Hints:
six-stranded mixed β-sheet
Amino acid sequence: MKIKILSLILLVLPIFGIAQSTVNETVNSWRLSVDETHVIPKSVRSVSSKEALIYLNKLRTGAGETLLVENVILNTSALNHSNYLVTNNISGHYETAGKTGFTGVQPWERSAYAGYLSSISENVSTGQTSIEESIDGLYSAIYHRFGFQAFDIDEIGIGVNFSGTGAYTYNMGNKKLNDACGGTSFSGSGRYYTGVCSDTTFKLEESVYLNVQNANKASNPSKVLWPYANQINVSPVFFEESPDPLPDYSVSGYPISLKFNDYFNKTVSLTSFQLFDSAKNEIANTRLLKKDNDPNSKMTTHEFALFPLTRLDWNSKYTAKAVYSVDGVTEISEWSFTTKSIGYDYYKITTNSSDITIQANKTYALYVVPSSKIDVLTSYNTKGTFLPKTAFIDSNTLSVSTTDAIGGKTTITLSNGKTINITITSTDTALPSQTLASNSSSSTSSSVTSTFTQEQQSYINELVGSNPIKWFFWMTNSGRVFIADTRKGESADTTTLWEHSLTNFTWTPISGGSVEKLFNTLSISSDGRTITLGNPITTTSSTKQDYINELTGANPIKWFFWMTNSGRVFIADTRKGESADTTTLWEHSLTNFTWTPISGGSVEKIFDTLSISTDGRNITLGASGN
């Protein structure tokens, strides 16, 4: 399956003039695209543009940047374009007059048609099966990433059409600039800018233009590190981008970047940029990209990217270190991140012909380690006594599974000439999906089970260790779970609590909130299915108890359990005719035990049963299916 990620950043080059002078304005643009053979389709696609904004803002705030605000006019222009792409079965940024759904040739014309008054930037992708794949793909491509990290944008419209191959359009703008373009064109004497409003003849006085540009920059951090500090689930790989920052490579490691905010940093000079594995060994085979050597001349003096020239390992911790001078003062930034797990027990394929064994009814990953800088898979074929179910995870990795009987044999021939001979047996020698890659110098302790990564298990050990922690347990109406930790000086009365994400066991700062219950202890079972809050100060109400009794009664209920990247928990109830394949799930809010309709979503896990203990402290998901 071919995935296209196309990004158009309108480089607003305002024309500067003196009043009464004649100015001819042109808005220059450049186009980006990414082609990847990509990901296993999810069973159900992501929810909506609102879910997309939640995910994008999660990434921006993780890096310390301000939240983008939804703009309904930009939503309209973005959705118009996504609908146009799907209706006409094409991809790209430009529309043709006369075709169904036409609203403007260029992005700024389409946003103007929808009613937006200032210039915009646009990212477009087609072919992904979820909004997360679309946004993650844009962040993996360095020019696209810097566009999403722009310090002067503060609002966005996202248009998603899931029909056909799917289309995703992101229109980004500056609200203050848009408001200024809705005012009166400057007609006095003095300095002014043109070319920044949809009406290209509109004049903005110099001070007005600089103020609206700098206001957003001043609210953002002085620099953005990427991946951000302690980020997890980072892709280990970068493939292609157009224009291509690595024209001589088809596969390399995920780029590490530094972007400085020119509002705070007038001059920036980079002294060194390094990457280290978990054993503190430097990844020496890298290439540093900056304005002076960017082959496409897209980077500014304030943007730097370090490309590992070989793939990073799955599920491994890395540390980046940059030494630089800002306005003559030397500074150092050092931070760590962890790449994502491969997701299945897996085999590393390093030879031209490999023999492996698999069990029926189990999914495996086949990671074909690149033998050169251009070694990517474009296709494969299978021949044997059984036909396994296969799909691309990325352009070096396949998933494979079968329901056939023991003894079956098949051979997968890859486009790079390598062959993988597969036999179905009762056992296998695959590596566990959570095993740290070979660059790790420390082994997992005996208390760590294969259910968790090392970081997750460390977090669990901290929660259930010998030194009890007093927790404030808080749950919003949207089902998000927050816990205040007294070791951080938090209490039920503080306005800042911390979100405990059960998907990755990390802390995320959250402002505001009310305390629903107060618990003295929190524990998590070794298999991750049971979370217990101990010694509650408040008691469950009769209404909640009635609901608990219903859940744990004599008539078992089959539940589908789903958790989004934003940490929201959804459960489908078969009594309502719901299933894993329906597009409408229901959110289970533990604050009031009511159902709230949710549209769309991807099924993360399926459990046959759900039980809640009579005191409300213990929630258990049981008998997971495929």
